[in-house]
Amino acid sequence: GENVEQHPSTLSVQEGDSAVIKCTYSDSASNYFPWYKQELGKGPQLIIDIRSNVGEKKDQRIAVTLNKTAKHFSLHITETQPEDSAVYFCAAYTNAGKSTFGDGTTLTVKP
Amino acid sequence: DGGITQSPKYLFRKEGQNVTLSCEQNLNHDAMYWYRQDPGQGLRLIYYSQIVNDFQKGDIAEGYSVSREKKESFPLTVTSAQKNPTAFYLCASSSTGGAGSPLHFGNGTRLTVT
């Protein structure tokens, strides 16, 4: 089955700096890659996603890149703010709709 | 507002008791899911349902049971057979069960069994 590895497990940055979180996946059939943000005591929320026919997608300060050959995708957050502090999860989906999540990255943005 | 409602937010049970976690959605989504989240770990799929009256086991279904009698509702029962039931449980839905359909999550139920 699919295996998704996410790094780093914790990330601390200064406000205004950029943050990058990377995920690798094993199943070449995976074709949809969402990123979720989970704040304390809440459920995860989708923040951005990318499909396998696209290499990069951007939404304001957030971007995701996908390298299908290398089977990895990354979340980029620019100009970080304290409210970006949360746990971020990547996921990989196959056509069967089965999703596999990474173990999460705890991002702390220090003011 | 459309969304997913999980209740209760906190639940305490004695070992050996079955307990049912509620999940209701008003998004008119076909597919619903239950995930378990343990500290420092990702989300692990317990059960999912792509259509009413049908559901499939996920990666860690042992000790759990579900039903899908209505499109809006997907309750999860944690049975006494689940060896380590204390965890944070998340319910989610998606418009279809296929790839490319993002998950909408509830705010979870934290279950503590002593």
Written description of the protein model:
The complex is a heterodimer of chains A (111) and B (114). Chain A is mostly beta strands. Chain A is 0% helix and 57% strand. Chain A is built from no helices and eleven strands. Chain A has strands spanning 4-7, 10-14, 19-25, 32-38, 45-51, 56-59, 62-67, 72-77, 86-93, 99-101, 105-110. In chain A, strands 2, 4, 5, 9, 10 and 11 form a six-stranded mixed β-sheet that branches. A five-stranded antiparallel β-sheet of chain A has the order 1-3-8-7-6, with no helix packed on it. Chain B is mostly beta strands and 114 residues long. In chain B, the strands form two sheets. In chain B, strands 2, 4, 5, 6, 9, 10 and 11 form a seven-stranded mixed β-sheet that branches. Chain B has a four-stranded antiparallel β-sheet with strand order 1-3-8-7, with no helix packed on it. In chain B, strand 5 and strand 6 form a beta hairpin. Chain A binds chain B through residues 4, 6, 9, 31-32, 34, 36, 41-46, 49, 51, 89, 93-99, 101-104, and chain B through 4, 6, 31, 40-45, 50, 90, 92, 96-108.
